[in-house]
Design a protein that fits this description.
alpha/beta; about 270 residues; about 50% helix
Length: about 270
């Protein structure tokens, strides 16, 4: 096991994404629980975080004062209000933002202090240590802070460093992607149910098939087209299904979904 992170980690916001990250950090044992400080406006979320064994603070400012690295896991529309409440507590510290559409410069402009800012795009499978974390390579973190950020997220999935101008594209692919994959699993299961499979069995077959196929690519580097061809025999069942998907416009629909998601991320940034 890799060495534990020594810095104190703060997290403001413990909703779906912030909660997934915290759940993953605790499950991975990358940071001692007594070194994690959190706050959420929801009392229900505060109680949930207490069950993790981390410090639940009284407000955002206390989280920042207690931490060396602070993860900002609040929605973009609440970011300015949230950062105003931190006052000077972020001065000279490392800030990691997961807010879609907000650039590092926009984050800095909302803070009444001078922190170093890393913009990231995670996704919810971090909760089961299978997430994706895209980190902006052109940030102003020190080399040591970059190493810590990678060490913090690596146990939760995979880490990719990309220039900030590509982070909106990442949002369209892996940020929103879990929803698309879930829809595909649901649709595959519905097809199984239509053919007579019990609902629970259909879901398990579909989910395992998605996970297994993804692992074949990630572990072996086998091109997705080759993976498809491995299953697609001449005049067989699979080519009929592939034809139905092509006729239904699956590829174009997925490409459009990624595009509109990325464009929405850009729009969120332009409207700030």
């Amino acid at each position: 096991m890799s060495e534990k992170i020594e810095q104190k980690i703060g997290c403001i916001g413990c909703g779906n994404m912030g909660g997934a990250i915290l759940h993953g950090i605790v499950a991975s044992n990358a940071v001692d629980r007594e070194q994690i400080y959190v706050y959420d406006v929801s009392e229900e979320k505060q109680e949930e975080m207490r069950t993790f064994g981390v410090h639940v603070m009284a407000d955002n400012e206390q989280v920042c004062e207690s931490s060396d690295i602070v993860i900002l896991a609040v929605k973009p529309r609440y970011m300015a209000q949230t950062l105003a409440s931190t006052k000077q507590a972020l001065d000279g510290k490392c800030v990691i933002s997961i807010a879609a559409g907000l650039s590092a410069d926009q984050i800095r402009s909302m803070i009444d202090a001078t922190p170093r800012v890393l913009r990231t795009m995670p996704n919810t499978p971090a909760m089961v240590l299978s997430g994706v974390f895209a980190l902006c390579s052109d940030c102003d973190l020190t080399d040591g802070e970059k190493q810590t950020a990678e060490a913090l997220f690596a146990p939760l999935g995979i880490v990719e460093w990309v220039p900030e101008h590509l982070i909106d594209a990442v949002c369209g692919v892996s940020g929103s992607g879990p929803a698309y994959v879930a829809m595909f699993i649901e649709a595959m299961a519905d097809g199984g149910v239509r053919e007579g499979l019990p609902r629970a069995t259909a879901y398990r077959l579909a989910a395992q098939t998605v996970m297994g196929t993804a692992r074949m690519y990630l572990e072996n580097g086998t091109h997705p087209g080759v993976l498809k061809d491995m299953v697609t025999s001449p005049a067989g069942t699979t080519i009929e299904g592939c034809y139905a998907l092509e006729k239904g416009g699956m590829r174009a629909a997925v490409i459009d979904a990624v595009h509109v998601g990325a464009e929405k991320s850009r729009e969120l940034g332009r409207n700030r």
